Amino acid sequence: MEVPTQPLLRLRDLSTDIALRRGAVQALDHVNLEVRQGETLGIVGESGSGKTMTVLSIMGLLPTGGRVVGGEILFDGRDLRGLEAQELRRVRGVEMGMVFQDPLTSLNPTMRIGAQVAEPLRVHQGVGKAEARERAIEILRRVGMPRPDKIVDDYPHQLSGGMRQRVVIAMALIRSPRLLIADEPTTALDVTTQRQILELIDDLREEFKMAVILVTHDLGVIAGRADRVAVMYAGRVVETATTAELFRAPRHRYTEALMRALPESAESGRLYSIPGLPPDLSRPLTGCRFAPRCGFATDECRTTDVTLTGDAHAFACLHPVTDRATIAPSAAREPSASGAAKPILTVRDLVKEYDAGGAGLRRTAARVSAVAGVSFEVKAGETLGIVGESGCGKSTVGRLVAGLEPPTSGEIVVDGADVTTLDRAARHRMHRQVQLMFQDSYAAMNPRMRIDSILTEPLEIQRVGDSGARRARVSELLDQVGLPRRALERYPHEFSGGQLQRIGLARSLALRPRLIVADEPVSALDVSVQAQVLNLMRDLQRDLGLSYVFISHDLSVVDYMADRIGVMYLGKLVEVGPAHQVVRAARHPYTQALLDAVPTPDPGRTADAGSAIRGELPSAVNPPTGCRFRTRCPLAQDVCATEPPLAGGTHQVACHFPLRQEAAAGA
Amino acid sequence: MTRYLLARLGQALVIVILVTLITFVILHLLPGGAARAILGKEATLQQIASFNHEMGYDRPLWEQYALYLRRLVGGDLGYSFQLNQSVAEAINQRLPKTMLLSLGSTLIAVVVAVPLGVIQAVRRNRWPDYTINGLSLLAYATPIFFMGLMMIILFSQVWPVLPPEAPQGFTMAEVLAEPAGLVLPTLTLAILTVAVYSRYIRSSMVDNLNENYVRTARSKGLAESRVIVGHTLRNGLFPVITLLGMYLPALFSGALVVERLFNYPGMGLLFWQAALKRDYPILLGVTLLISVATVAGALVADVLYAAVDPRVRLKAARS
């Protein structure tokens, strides 16, 4: 692609502070970046790295207390900091467009889609009501919205997540901006929708000749979509290079560590995890900000201010990576040697239906079919991964197995006893065997209880030991999850996300369960912290002989963690088998589409466009008959209207036209 | 939408019937029965017997209740022997006066409180916010009789521009003929209401201004005034609907303290006098009226919500 020499946007020594009650956080420290027309710049970093603050500074949308304190924001040669308020609003409203992370909260809930999308036109170009509506329909059609002439009069809550994000994109594009800023545009979306949205942004960039800034924490997303990448850490750009160059040969030690922490690059069954936490930016810092967590740091790193050097491939590191790191998707863990082990959990024909609405006295006939006849086994010491997109029923399966909700029908056999037929007291005791670990541990803990009480509570409820024994058990738990004893005195809000996840794990371990149902345990964590938690979970499994049901939307994490994987679609288990076979030789078309949609941190790999699934997940109120995937399946035939059974040996699939035959046993 | 309305209306009706049942039971639990309560302690047994027969109080309970309901439907709330007029008539005389006072003060309060709350939210933690906050806290904490007294002292003693007493006219026309007399009671009530409302509006607007959709609106390069009026205000005013719904019963029950202070013959005064004289028919009649108003207030708030918030509308349409 031909790239004009003059950058459209150039940040020169941009510094931004956020005022606190006392002092200030130095959110950005001398950030230098540029982006040219027709080019996509990826900004990648973990939470708190300043990537979002950078784009908010450009857009002038800093949160309360936030202020640009130094440097220049040169847009088309003019410094935005010097512009008058009215002109600045015009530039922001006409020449720039921004796509936000959470499409639900980013739209006004009480304003019609059309009015929101066309508002920039009405304000900046004085377009009339009727014309604005026409233009809104036109741009909605352009971003691939089905039935745009109807959607235009709808309200945001009537749309799905993917459709809402299309609306946000349409809103940014209707002004034909020269710069499009997308801040984690797909983080809240499922992988198949993510793929559709990222492809849309790519297409539109070419069509409108825009410059795009793509902000994300996901190295996979960056690898597939950006021309150049800037890696940020603790308010600074630490490395910038073309995407291919960066992924082929990262130079900064932080970039390298970030890539090694990905589940895809697990080498010998253990993930590399970055020790420690990012620095506190409200205190003055000297030297390289990554030095305290870096294995290669010397005294020089801690004392001299390391600046970004180099032209095409710039990095701020005194001891850069010299050997070429290979980031290749590696084989997952060796299958655990529990082939003949007894199942700890057996689920047979599990069904869960909810009433759809039906307020008051009159029950409506419509029922949501959340889980529709799911059967599987988990053996002792084994991890079963359950993957699927939101709404597929995977979390419901987790809650049913953990005994939080009664199933509509079916059996859940834990350790030989069917939980659904147990009396209250027996079910109470069953909770000792099966425990749940949550995605958002902070929300799952009482904020007014100290860690001490949080960990002791399960023991008290189950009347385990006396108070001395409980104290000893709680200390033991802290040791197991690698937290200091001091933690007992503190409250949940004093801990970081990764630490909270450790505490959550400790709480589920308190009763010495044999099975832990972990529902998206690492989804809210940064890559480096995610690695710590995943490692811990595997260590504990080895030491304590635990079984896990590991529920996640993230295939690479499940691939790393699980011995076997079950894939769910709309309440059905469509495929189940050994992890490496499901991920590398998928038999169900849905599994294949899911795998193809996952962005991989490998710029060379291009996704096969043919396997992409289109459209939206059907409603679970009236799910399609027969194979539930047939409405979106590229291979669907008439016979798919009859339900395919889950069939096969160790690698089972529920499909009339499986993509491949089962691999020979033991392969 | 219609189905939702019908369902809510049905619920409201059930509650109202329950309320009538309770007032009916109370009427029968009165010491010596309704007859003793109405005719007084000196009534002879014969008088009581004939009264009971006349009122149907010697018939079976369910028949009496049916009779009671039929009278209620016909607008007959009972007869006050002490006022020597029917309860409906007594209420009829005073209710319009009370409504004039309450509606006037509420209207003023909303008109003043909305901009105040918005200014506070926009200038949060700066001097306009602190000033308004301090004043409204003061108004909120001041007992209403003291507030009324201060108003009388200020505006009819120190600076005698307004009469200290409300209009004493018997009919509405007579009351309306002296608008000056209505100013002080209306204002006294309004000040308190402003204090309550502006605090709600401030916190609701603050919450909404922190929402992501406001950031989206700003990203379109809208002027701040358009961001606030065009995007935030509508969502920020939802709590006011709840407040207004909760306030509806007060429109009917009247503001006892203010009516007493300014000697304004409204519902509050009626209820107070009835309580002093143990005028049970009046007390129960007014109670019933206020109960119905409470139910109606909740209903009105729900309907208003459905009208302004599309999310409620959809949920209703689905159910």
Automatic annotation (TrEMBL), chain A:
GO terms for biological process: peptide transport. It is found in: Cell membrane. It is a peripheral membrane protein. GO terms for cellular component: plasma membrane. This is Peptide/nickel transport system ATP-binding protein/peptide/nickel transport system ATP-binding protein. The keyword Acetylation does not apply. Pfam families: ABC_tran, oligo_HPY. The keyword Nucleotide-binding applies. Keywords: ATP-binding, Cell inner membrane, Cell membrane, Membrane, Nucleotide-binding, Translocase, Transport. Residues 9-259, 345-595 form the ABC transporter domain.
From TrEMBL, chain B:
Its main location: membrane. Coiled coil: none annotated. It is a multi-pass membrane protein. CDD domains: TM_PBP2 (cd06261). Keywords: Cell membrane, Membrane, Transmembrane, Transmembrane helix, Transport. It comes from the Bacteria. PROSITE patterns: ABC_TM1. Residues 95-301 form the ABC transmembrane type-1 domain. PANTHER family: DIPEPTIDE TRANSPORT SYSTEM PERMEASE PROTEIN DPPB-RELATED (PTHR43163). It comes from Nonomuraea fuscirosea. One of its GO terms (biological process) is transmembrane transport. The keyword Cell membrane applies. One of its GO terms (cellular component) is plasma membrane. The chain crosses the membrane at residues 12-30, 99-122, 134-159, 179-197, 236-262, 282-308. This is Peptide/nickel transport system permease protein. It is found in: Cell membrane. Belongs to the binding-protein-dependent transport system permease family.
